[in-house]
């Protein structure tokens, strides 16, 4: 691969993602999600994905589109409360779900990308996270078909810690505000969220960027994620419906409530 990592379209960017691939997907709620890449993957046709992402979008946007189409087999997430179809599939045994404390999920992605196979954390110690038995998958009759295993524990300075494994995935899909042709990325404000961590975890990381610049235009001090962690860059345009930046919960005040 040359230093120019750009591809011409989101369809080309995800064309080789196979059936059953594991995916790390950036975003938090609907903020900073790689919506154009997700839409292209929906059109591409593969499924059976094992997805690692903080959440699973909503019923009609983001990863919720892949979920509704029956293309996700397993989710590793920390929060899933905004998606009714997610709850339906999980409780009916159609979807396997591993719930992970949010900070632990972030560190598992970072550790995987840094080549750290496992680490100890106090989060979840003394709960079912550590003891095992959490339902990962239900049977159609409502019984637990697959339960979480117990985690290895160790005591440091009188406190119990759990051993958590780093996460590596076949691909990662992320969204950045600015990227250059070498794959250096800049994220904007809260849209940074899980994007750099997901990018670290992917063996092949694909970034959709809103603004594509030439190498050398980014000040090195501005770069949030170096291009060494990114294999493909594709520009998305504001007038593309698939690249729309939606608001998950629109909270507004009336004129009377907000005053002049």
Automatic annotation (TrEMBL):
Instruction: Give the matching SUPFAM superfamilies.
Output: NagB/RpiA/CoA transferase-like (SSF100950)
Molecular functions (GO terms): transferase activity
Instruction: Provide the alphabetized UniProt keywords.
Output: Transferase
Q: Which Gene3D superfamilies match?
A: Glutaconate Coenzyme A-transferase
Which InterPro entries would you find in this protein's record?
A: 3-oxoacid_CoA-transf_A, CoA_trans_fam_I, NagB/RpiA_transferase-like
| UniProt key word Transferase | yes
For the keyword Transferase, the answer is yes
Q: Which PANTHER family match?
A: ACETATE COA-TRANSFERASE SUBUNIT ALPHA, KETOACID-COENZYME A TRANSFERASE
Name of this chain's protein: CoA transferase subunit A
Q: Which organism is it from?
A: Streptomyces incanus
């Amino acid at each position: 691969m040359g230093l120019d990592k750009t591809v011409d379209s989101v369809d080309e960017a995800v064309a080789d993602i196979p059936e059953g691939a594991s995916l790390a997907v950036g975003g938090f709620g609907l903020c900073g999600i790689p919506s154009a890449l997700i839409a292209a993957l929906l059109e591409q046709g593969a499924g059976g994905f094992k997805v690692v992402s903080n959440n699973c979008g909503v019923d009609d946007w983001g990863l919720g589109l892949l979920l509704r189409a029956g293309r996700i087999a397993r989710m590793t997430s920390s929060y899933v409360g905004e998606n009714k179809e997610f709850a339906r599939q999980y409780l009916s045994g159609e979807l396997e779900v591993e719930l992970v404390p949010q900070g632990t999920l972030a560190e598992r992605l970072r550790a995987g990308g840094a080549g750290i196979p496992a680490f100890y954390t106090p989060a979840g110690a003394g709960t079912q996270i550590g003891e095992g038995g959490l339902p990962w998958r239900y049977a159609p009759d409502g019984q637990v078909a697959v339960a979480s295993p117990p985690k290895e524990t160790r005591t440091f300075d009188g406190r119990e810690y759990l051993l958590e494994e780093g996460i590596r995935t076949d691909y990662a899909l992320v969204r950045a505000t600015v990227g250059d042709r070498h794959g250096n990325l800049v994220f904007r404000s809260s849209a940074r969220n899980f994007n750099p961590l997901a990018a670290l975890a992917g063996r092949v990381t694909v970034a959709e960027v809103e603004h594509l610049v030439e190498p050398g235009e980014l000040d090195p001090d501005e770069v949030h994620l170096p291009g060494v962690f990114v294999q493909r860059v594709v520009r998305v345009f504001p007038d593309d419906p698939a690249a729309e930046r939606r608001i998950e919960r629109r909270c507004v005040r009336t004129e009377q409530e907000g005053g002049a």
